[in-house]
Amino acid sequence: MYNLLVSGNDTAWDLPAYEFPRSRFLEYTVESMRDAHGDLSTKVVADLKSYPALFLYEQYEKTALVGYIRDIKERGNSIYIEYEFDQDIDPVPGERIKELASQLQIDEFRGEQYRTHWALKRVDLLGLLSTNGLVSPALANEGAPVGRLEEMKFKVAFSFPGELREYVEQVSNAIKATLPPGSVFYDNDFVAQLARPNLDTLLQTVYLKNSDLIVVFLSKDYETKMWCGIEWRAVRSFINSRSDETVMFFRADDASIPGVFAHDGYVDMARFPAEQSSQFVLERIRLLRKES
């Protein structure tokens, strides 16, 4: 999924903000996506901000830019957006975008390239640009959810030490096969986005604000890992606020973990294989959905 932002103003993308007429929002967008994104609710705004954006000039004039929308505000009959461009992606010559128009779902037959508008397209923008040598494969992270990590909303996020990765990956893969794309936070799906300074702040946002359920895989190694410790702060925040239903424990051994007590319930990893454990996680996700 990506945002296609087209302007006939030849200096439009020189500024960090732009205003579209409300009537131009979701033009050249398939009906099901218009229905799902048209109301600009809090959830819709978060979704739109999580999708990458292609900033294009009419008739492919000048270079195109790739980035993300940072803010969306309705102003009467218009929609005001603020955005930033991805500094790791070079501007793309308009001619190259024209060559890829059909793959980008730009409807040249209906003259989409001649009209200022904001469309949504069901295309993996970064993957397509990567395939054509316009974006680093590391940024595309083929097969991973597409979106800006700070803005994505997850049904479940996993916290675990590396020693348990094989088991956790099996659980994660089974759950991803059931839930919609982008519903699961598993670190290896976001390698490029996690390679940054101040990662502790980002992880706190992912676990504390952006995830419905945190699944914690405890073992003797968990307490000693720096990143597990950062994630554990978010888990403790949930527990301290009495949001017990948003945390789920798995145990690989009986190691003592500060903040985990003998009466706390858990799933025994030695007793249940990963496939069955994935069903337990899905059950908790379904229960959370009913409670909300």
UniProtKB/TrEMBL annotation:
SUPFAM superfamilies: Toll/Interleukin receptor TIR domain. Residues 156-271 form the TIR domain. It comes from the Bacteria. It holds the Pfam family TIR_2. This is TIR domain-containing protein. It comes from Methylomonas fluvii. The lineage of its organism: Bacteria, Pseudomonadati, Pseudomonadota, Gammaproteobacteria, Methylococcales.
